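Record type: monomer structure entry
Structure origin: computed from sequence
Chain ID: A
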Amino acid sequence: MSSSHYQPRRVNHPKFKNVNSTKAVQLLADQQVGEFIFRPSSRGTSNLTLSWKFYEGNIVHIDIVEHDKAPGATIGQRLQIGRDDYFENLQEIVERYIIPCNKLVQDAIGNIKFKRAETSEELEQQLKQEKQEEPSRIPYKIAIISVYP
């Protein structure tokens, strides 16, 4: 199935929307960094997707695998992100995954070494300039480049 095909779901959470990935990107585009929605997955009814505005111009889609789903249940009793992270419900994902991740992003952005850069070439140019100005230093920066979020 393509990312635009999904089966609508009845999931009771204020951040759940029955939309595909294209619509999720549109919904999040004008939102603040850190906003997110849960939505049906194009992988079928044993998965959900977390669409998260990670940074300006960067919306990531995170697969949530549902486990222990009783017949007729709207959502699995155990939700898995990645290999080792398990959650009991969507609100626990908000509290133990999204909120801490948003804090880490904010901490990185607030770091004195953070540099807003559109391209890695732009970042590299600034580092070369800093090195030229102070040859004895080893300059470094933290950046989020859209092509490599």
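Annotation 1: The helical segments are 21-29, 90-110, 120-133.
Annotation 2: The first helix runs from residue 21 to 29.
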